[in-house]
Structures are given as structure tokens and as C-alpha cells.
Amino acid sequence: MYSIAVLDDRNEQLTTLIRSIRTALPEGWSCVQCPLVSDPSSYAQWLMDNEVFVLVVDQVLNEQAPDSAGSVDYKGHQVIESIRETFPDFPVFIVTAHPSDEDLSDHEGNAEDVITRTQLTGDVRKYVARMVRAGQRFHAEHERRLNELTELATKVALGTASQEEKDNLKQLQVSLGSRPAATVNITREEALASAEEKATELEDLAREIEAIVQDRSR
Amino acid sequence: MPGKHFKVDARAMLTWGRDSIKDHTTAVLELVKNSYDAGARIVEVAICTAPKKEEMPYIRISDDGVGMTNRQLSQNWLRIGYSEKLKSKTARFGRRKTGEKGVGRISADRLGGNLELRTQARNALPVGLNVNWNKFEKAGTDLSKITIPIISKPSFLIPQPSQFDSRKNQFLEAPASRRNSRGCTGTELKIISLRHQWGKADIEDLRHELSILTPPFERVLDFQVRILNDLDPNLNGVLDSPFYEVAEIEGDFSYSGNAHVEYSLTDRTEKGRVRRHDPIITEWTSFVHTVATTGNALPVNSVPKCGPLNAKLLFYPRLAETLRGTDLTVTELKEFLDTNAGIKVYRDNVRVMPYGSVGRPEGDWLGLGDRKARNPAGPGRVDFRVAPNQLVGAVFLTRDGNPRIIDTSGREGLIHSDEFNELKSFLLSGCLPTVEAHYHKLYSARKKDEDEFSPRETVREVNESLDELVSNLRSVEAELPKKASRQVERLRDQISLSRERLKLLQKSSEELASQATIYRGLATLGITAATFGHETEITLDSCLAAINTAHALMASGTDSRNEVLEELAKAIEYGKRISAWGAFALKRVRRDKRQKRKTNINQLISELVKGLKPAFSASNIKIRESYEDVEGNTFPMDVESVALNLMTNAYYFSKLSKKERVVSVILRNARREGENGFELIVGDSGPGVRTSIRDQVWEPLFSTKVDIDGRPFGTGLGLSIVDSVVRDLGGTKSIDSEPRLEGARFKIWFRLD
To answer: Which of B651, B661, B658, B649 is nearest to B685 (CA)?
Structure first.
């Protein structure tokens, strides 16, 4: 199941958007609420954890009072910037009541599209279709990279990866949002030796625990 | 001991003299400096281009200094490189001698091929020399082998200083010169075979340079320079300028050299009277806010090493009002400033070139021109900067007090060391901003007095005066003789006529005031629309989105009746909000609000606040209200304009707060100075208004609003409208901190009839 998530600080408008999008979703797709968090850098992880492949975000997220639930001090385009650090091509659509805002025009290129609620809900089939296509493209590319990552990781583990392939693996890890593994450059023999060492340590530990248990039972 | 000795080729004289002096004006300056060092009270510079028959053009520089004995002439004057100043640093009148390089006298070579020197010291015989500089041009000649003929029994005229007439503010005619004698000392240099053909422009240039050679501000009467020439008699006389006493602001600044700065400001009132303000003592680090951008940065807490500094700045706004109380013209003032503006440097009261020289790029050494170009704000703004042609200034150094501020070896300029930069900081970041801030304050106070004139108030006052006149007339009428009854009747008629005319004036004034009220009301509406317009736009967008969604849900054929109803309910609610905003806007400009009438003020304010509540609620801003019963005659639209502008301000700033968003509105009856009135108080939980800008916020176009990215926005007109209404209606305004909400609190009081 793939998802489109909606991020908005105003509950009424959030509900309207979700309902509207749901009327046009194809099979295998759902529309969910994205929780508003204080740290925008957490969005990328949440998107992956919840298999969300499209985000619809309200530009003005900072209308709520600081002490109320769901109050943040950043705007929609800043959420996109944060997500782009992890997923450079994640599809995001900005929803706003005033697309001609100055701060938005500076960042428009970062989003798939900038639309008003009226536009989105008035032509919901068209926009949802666009969202689904963007999401599918991202998902396909993401899967391709994951598969490539697995292939390369296996080669590294087997000690058959070339230097070029090791470099590619690092780049893939970065683009998929994870840190390059320190083990990329370790040989198979070294990996096995390390595993043996760990196993020996565990055996020693097991013996010590047994001795203590026997002491106590006397 | 056996050995070798240096010999000096006679041509070396040309290097020291002719080739090292920039131009003929500088050469004269050097010789006049020597006269200064010789303790002269007067130096007379005579330039004769068309002398009597058989005589050649000449320059004569004569002074009443200490002169030289024969021994001094031989041992000192004729010893190149010898400087009397190295032996004794002070001259007559406590002057610190200038120049220590011992070559200034050779400047004469730059002026002409021949020099006749005549000098008379006290209780000594006069001596003289005739130096032919051209003899030194022959290469291969030993300097010591060139004979300089002696002038036997030299006799010459020594000039006498002119007296200054304080009442006429001018120098009197020059007294007659005196013949040299054992009791009348001095020196005369007569230079002939002139190397330059002097013209009127040269005399003007020389006059200009000489007039600023010594401190112009202190009216240094112990050192006069008098010019005599045969090209233009208008250029003759003792050099002085009357403009030094008509500065709008005179600032005297003194740095002790030990972290303390003392300064005092003098300004002139509108009637031309001089007003001296008390001196202020402060720390260097408080006085100098930033450091010079050239050179090394100065740590904020260090004590500068430049040594004691004294500076005087004279500011002239270049306006006719500057000359009030004088008979000087603006043309003359501008000419004076065009010639003399700039900040000059004096060491031991003698000019250090080229600082402050007009017309030379290096003359504007503090970059005042760039500084003004980057920020051309006028005097009404708090960031006002003087233009370079508005300032005549000087900073005074001494060789003993400022040893680390060092001359360059090229006779002009100072080495750009850390200490030099400290000097620049003192002026650029301390003295100048002080003068600028003072002028801004004066200007704003004058403007305020002009702006506080209220037609309504004036008409009211005139009516009260006429009432008093009628009452007084009635009370004395009975005591007047019968024959005065016709005059009394005439007086009554005149008073009636004045009242009628006043009524017409009042009507016209009221019509104008009414128009002003409408414009202010419309402007306020515009500002409010801009502030709350976003909210309306969001509401409209949301309304249509809800309708579209309801439509899509119904079209989907699924069982979503409840969701459809919910979306339609939202749409209705949004629609109501939009409609309410439209009604709110229309109510503000209703005709009946434009005239003065009996008004229930609490109803007026509470309805206004009610209309704003949806917009405030949408941003989670709570409004706390408290209204007393207040009723009276006033202009409803004006009162609403004030309330609306204050609420709009509070709306914006409370959203900036990290704490609970609250705006408070209080209305209460209040008397001021025996008059009935009411007070409107609007407070918020925003960041408050800094004390330093509480006067500026009322100025048009002044705004502190910035968006989330720090970009400025806002019209800067809201509070200026409030200010305008307060002045027109005869009220008061103030800003302080809201004690419970900890944001800003605006208090406006209006009189009620």
C-alpha cells in the first residue's frame, strides 16, 4: 500500500484535503495525515517508516499559538528543504491560499507544484493522478536503488566488489539516507576473523555465567 | 684620526628644496610655518607682480618673530639639516615648534632664484644674506665652496599685528610697520627671480591655504597671517572668517588619553541665540561604537594608544535658517563651505596636509561622501548622516601627546597605523554620530512644534479669547464716558465680524478635518485589509475547497453522507466569516461616522473588536476586553481608526511571541489637566517596543515588522495615523510595557466635549 500524506496545522483544512484526495485515489493508494513535529528533520524518516511516497504540505504552518498542540515555527518550504537533504527527489506538493507570496516564489522550484486548495479540490482527479505518477516514479527509483544497494552489499560481503562498486555503494547509501557502512572496505577474511573473535568472546562469557550460577546454587 | 669625510654636492640643495616641495603654495606655507616657529605674532605675505620701475616681481614674507643673530645665522640657518626645534621644542607663546627636518628654509628656492634674507634679533646687530639658488645647480661643485654674499647693515620693515574689533567682528586696518632695531625683532625674506607667474587664482589659493593653516576655531590672535598683493585688493588683509560663529551645532570633543571622553555641544535656537549644553563625560568604549573599517580591529575593551585628542566639529545644514540673526547670505555660506568643509588635522596648531582639503580625493579621509551616499537619510530620520559639505571640523594633535601618530616622510599625511585608525574611530564612530544625533533631535523637536499646530484647537482658543474680550468689554462699559459709547459699539461690531469670519474659518477647517478623517479611515482600512487580507484569502480558499470536496464525495457514490454534511457546514461557516469581513469593512466608512457627534464609545470599540475576533481566533489570539461606559461628542471614524491601527499592530506582534498570544483592550473614563476625556489602552504579549525607538515609531514609514525570513514589510503608516488623529483631536499618546502580558502597551487619551 502506497500513501500520500497531508501536512497542515489546521485540522479543518487538513480533513477537507484528505477527504478530497481520497475520492480520487486509485487502488493500492491511501491518504493519511502527517503529524506536525517540532523538528523538521524528522519528516524524512517518518515518510519512509510509513511508506509515504508523496507529501502534500500547507505553506503556512506557523499560525498556531506556541503553547497550543501542533505549533511550529517553520513554513512548508522549509519542510521540503529538510526532506531534500535525505531524499533529493521526493515528490512534494505545496498547498497555499496565496501562491504569489514572496518567500514562496524563492523556493517554488523545490516543489512538484504550488497550488491553492480550491485548485486541488476543484480538479482533484487531475492532481491526484499527478501525485500518484510522481509517487510511483519515486518509489520505482527508490526500489531500484535499494536493489542495487543489496547487490553491491552482497558483493562487498563476499569480497568480490571492485573499488568502483564500493564507491557506488557509498553513494547509494547516502542517496538512500543512510550512512556509508564502515564495513564497505573490509575483506571477507577480515569480516570472518572478526566474527570468530566475537563468537569466542561469547563462549567465554557463557562459561563465566555458568560458573557464577553453579557457585550460587551451592 | 685619519679618515675620509662626506662631501655634499651643491645640487643636493635642489633635492631638498625645489624638488621636494610640491608647489609654490606649499613653499610659502613652509616659510610661514618657520615664522610661526620663530614665535611671530604676525606674518605678512606680500606678492608683488608689477613693482615699480627697475624692480622685478617679488614675494616678501616678513614676520615679527625672534629673528636671528649673526652666530645663529651662521651656525644654524646655514647648517643644512640643523633644526632649532630639536634643541628647544617650544617657541614663544608656548607654541610647539613644527618640523624637525631642518630643510624648510630651502623652500624659498622653489619660489624664486634669489633670496634676500634680513633678520634682526633682540639686542643684536641685524644680519642679512643674499642667496642665489641658481649657483647650486652646477654639478660637481662642493656645497661648502659656494659663497653667499652678506648684506651689510640690513634694514627692513617689520609688520605689526592687526587689532580685532569684537563689536564689528572684523580686523581693524593694519598698523604701520616698524623699522627693525635692537628692540624690534623679526625676519624678512624677499624672493625675486620668481619661478612662477602669480595670478589671481594663485593668490586665492594661497589665501585659502593660509587661512586654514592655523586653528580657525580659536580665533588664534597670537598668529595672524596677512596677505598683500597687487592683483586684487579684495584679497588683501588678515585672514579670518565670520562663519565660524554661525554653525548650527558646534561640538567640542576631548579624549583624555586614558579611556575617558568629555564633550559638549552648543547649538543655536530658532532666534539665533546660542545655547550651550552641559558637558558629558563618558568612557571611550561607550563613545566609540564601532571601529574604523580600515586598518586593524580594536578590541572593545582596550584603551586606545593614540594619545589625547581634541576635536571640534561645526555643522552647517546649508539652509537660510542657519544664518538667522546674521547678515550673511546663503551664497556666502555655501561658498565658505565649498572652500572650507572637511575635517582637518592640526599638529601643534599647524595644519597636516592633505586631511580635509576640499577638491582633493584624499581630503575626504574619513569617507564622509561615501558614508552619506550609502545612507542619504534626512535629519528627520534617526539614522541621519551629515554630508561632507556640511561639516567644518578639526582634530588637534601634539607631537608630545601623540607620538604614535607619525608623519610620513613626504611632508604630507600620517602613517596609517593602529593609532591613526583610533583617531579615525574617535571622529567617525564617536564625534560625528553625536553631532548627527543632536541635530536629529533638534530637527524633530522643531518639526513637532510645527506639526502640533491644530486648526481645531486654534479656532477654539480664538473663540475663547473673543468671549473673554466681550466679557471684559461688558465689565468696563459702565465706567466709560458716554462719548466712548460709539467706539464701544464699533468694537462690538468688530468682534461680531471676527466671530463670523471665524465661523467660516471653522467650517472650512472642519471640512478639511473631515476629509482628513475620511482619508485616515480609508488608509486604516487599507492597512487592516493588508494585515487581515491573508486570513480572508485563506478562508475563501478553504470555503471553496470544502464545497468542492462535498461535491466530489457526493459524486463518488460512496456512503459518505456525514462527511458531505461536515464539509458543507465548514463551507457555510467560512462563508459567514467572509461576509462578516465585508460588512466590517463597509461599516468603517459609513457617512454618519465622519462627523463629530455624540457617541457611545464603548459600543463603538466593542463592535470593532467583535468584528476582528474571527481573524484573531484563527491565529489563536485571545482578546481580553474591559470597557467602562464612555459617552461624549467625538469623531467616531477617528476613534475607530486609532483603535483599528492599534489592534492591527497588536495582531502582528502578538504572533511573534513564544508565549500565549493575548491582546488586551481597555476603555475607561479619564480626566487630564481638568478636562474630561477617555483613555483607550491596547496591550499585547509580543516582544514590546524598545525604549530607544518609542519616539520614532510614530513617524511615517517607520516600521520594525519583518517576515519569517527577516525581510522588512509593513506600510509604516498605522501609528503615524494614530499620531495624526491624536494631534487633531487634542489628545495624548504614550508607549510602555504591558505589565502582565509583557509586550507593548499603547495608551491614547482623547478629550471629550
So the answer is: B661
